[in-house]
Amino acid sequence: MAKETIKKEKSELETHAAQNATPITTLDTELKANKTPDREKKIIYSTKNLDLWYGDNHALKNINLDILENNVTAIIGPSGCGKSTYIKTLNRMVELVPSVKTAGKIIYRDQNIFDDKYSVEKLRTNVGMVFQQPNPFPKSIYDNITYGPKIHGIKNKKVLDEIVEKSLRGAAIWDELKDRLDTNAYSLSGGQQQRVCIARTLAIEPDVILMDEPTSALDPISTLKVEELVQELKEKYSIIIVTHNMQQAARVSDKTAFFLNGYVNEYDDTDKIFSNPSDKQTEDYISGRFG
Q1: Cβ proximity of 210 and 90 under 8 Å
Q2: Tens-place pLDDT, residues 9-56
Q3: Are the C-beta atoms of 210 and 128 separated by less than 8 Å?
Q4: Three-state SS for 36?
Q5: What is the pTM of this model?
Q6: Which of 31, 68, 189, 202 is the most buried (most CB within 10 A)?
Q7: CA dihedral of residues 225, 231, 234, 240 (deg, nearest 10)
Q8: What pLDDT score was predicted for residue 288?
Q9: CA-based torsion, 175, 180, 182, 186: positive or negative
Q10: Helical packing angle, 190-202 and 141-151, nearest 10°
Q11: Phi/psi at 23 (nearest 5 deg)?
């Protein structure tokens, strides 16, 4: 009788725990419930059988990945797994390393970016990048934002003024900086510098924004501002973000790709990756058993 009572109480406790467990949730859980189905979204990037070598080091292995328009796609994985190499391949910045060799295709807007006739300059205009460390130019805030537009031939002061305001508003930092546009960007806090770098990227009106661990050097408050900004930007842009922060990936992204040893180990909806991954190694990484 005593054993039956204990067994019943244990069962009730387990049921209670299951019912009250707190799942990993995202910053925009309510929005995701009403999001556009994947089948109705365009594929902006399609990576097909991509391999990449740094000399003899086989860094990316048979990558096949479709990235959807106006999504935030997170790339996660342990150090050295190939995630930063992959996003630098999407705008061919990885080719600045002399020993790099690639095989396979990356289709962006229905064109293979590795085709000999494809313009690398056009690609890097369409696909902007925000780096791990804020990297403003040693110039005024105004000159940082207008640098790209001026290179593209825009000289009209009124037009440049409009671009500066629009870009800083887009990076959610206009109100903080509108009276300081002549200030050297180096005088800003790290979080402000990173948002100025995002505004500088927006100034050339890209189609895609690549972010390589954009908040790893920032304090928690600045990190939150950048994460909130990412949610706003995906309405107009497609965003691909590399992050070591599991909670950040869960908060900001729609899709998550888990890279391991140069391979895409698993790629799925972020909610599924973090609540019910299909692969044991993904589960072990998400739960902190390695990495």
Answers
A1: yes
A2: 444 434 443 444 334 455 455 555 556 777 778 999 999 999 999 999
A3: yes
A4: coil
A5: 0.86
A6: 202
A7: 70
A8: 87
A9: negative
A10: 20
A11: -75, 160
What ranges do the domains of the chain cover?
Answer: 38-287
- For residue 179, CA distances in Å to 142, 173, 236 come to 11, 11, 27
Structural contact between residues 108 and 82, judged by C-beta atoms closer than 8 angstroms: no
CB contact set of 2 (below 8 Å; sequence gap of 6+): none
Q: What pairing do the DSSP bridges indicate for beta strands 255-260 and 263-269?
A: antiparallel
Query: Any alpha helices (H) in the chain, and if so which ranges?
Result: 2-19, 29-33, 83-90, 120-126, 141-151, 157-170, 174-177, 190-202, 220-233, 246-252, 270-275, 280-286
Query: Which CATH code is given to the segment(s) 38-287?
Result: 3.40.50.300
Cα–Cα distance measured from residue 37 to residue 21, given in angstroms and rounded to the nearest whole number: 28
Interhelix angle 220-233/190-202, nearest 10 degrees:
20
- Quote the tokens at residue 256: 């998550």
- The answer to whether 211 and 241 are in contact (CB under 8 A) is yes
Alpha helices, DSSP H, located in 44-156? 83-90, 120-126, 141-151
Give the length of the chain: 291
